[in-house]
Design goal:
Largest sheet: 6 strands, antiparallel
Order of helices and strands: HEEEEEEEEEEEE
Oligomer: single chain
């Protein structure tokens, strides 16, 4: 019985050592005591040079005094995290939606940049479309790639989105820029 216990302890030690070695040699892991985890749901989202401060991914503002109409801006998701601007800090790009009180729901891609402080550095947002069907967002070869379904040109807004669209973005000087392909 002692023999099996010693073998089990030996194997456990080997397993831990191999796991630690794999963790330390993984080139994708960046350890920084000053790189705070981004909380994308508690940032200001900037649309058309106007900031909408989100709390738990939600912002609501009255359009006019004495009006029931509100601008609702919220975190949708499809978040991808990486170092988009090469400063060694983790950044996040994701989709937000905005409803201006009508029937439309406008989808935007936006980015928040990592900081050495516990704060969000928001970029501008770029309109993807009205009532689209977001699919997946990736970070490939230094580009943020947003995939979604949209309507074909001339189709009414009541038609379900069926046309696959991929759009490419990058960060330049703290701005989100679309790359035309």
């Amino acid at each position: 019985m002692k023999k099996y216990t010693l073998v089990a302890i030996f194997l456990l030690i080997i397993f831990i050592m191999v796991g630690f070695w794999l963790y330390k040699t993984n080139s994708n892991i960046k350890i920084s005591s000053q790189n705070y985890d981004l909380d994308s749901k508690n940032c200001a989202y900037i649309i058309d040079d106007k900031a909408f401060k989100a709390v738990n991914g939600f912002s609501e503002e009255i359009i006019e005094i004495d009006s029931a109409s509100k601008i609702t801006t919220q975190y949708f998701g499809n978040e991808v995290k990486d170092d988009f601007n090469g400063d060694g800090l983790k950044d996040a790009s994701f989709i937000i939606t905005q409803n201006l009180g009508g029937s439309g729901t406008f989808y935007y891609i936006t980015t928040v940049l990592g900081s050495n402080k516990k704060e969000c550095i928001s970029t501008n947002s770029i309109l993807l479309g009205d009532r689209i069907a977001p699919q997946v967002t990736n970070y490939i070869n230094g580009q943020i790639v947003v995939n979604y379904a949209d309507r074909k040109e001339g189709e009414p807004m009541t038609t379900n989105p069926s046309l696959g669209v991929s759009r490419y973005f990058t960060i330049q000087n703290y701005s989100l820029i679309e790359i035309k392909k």
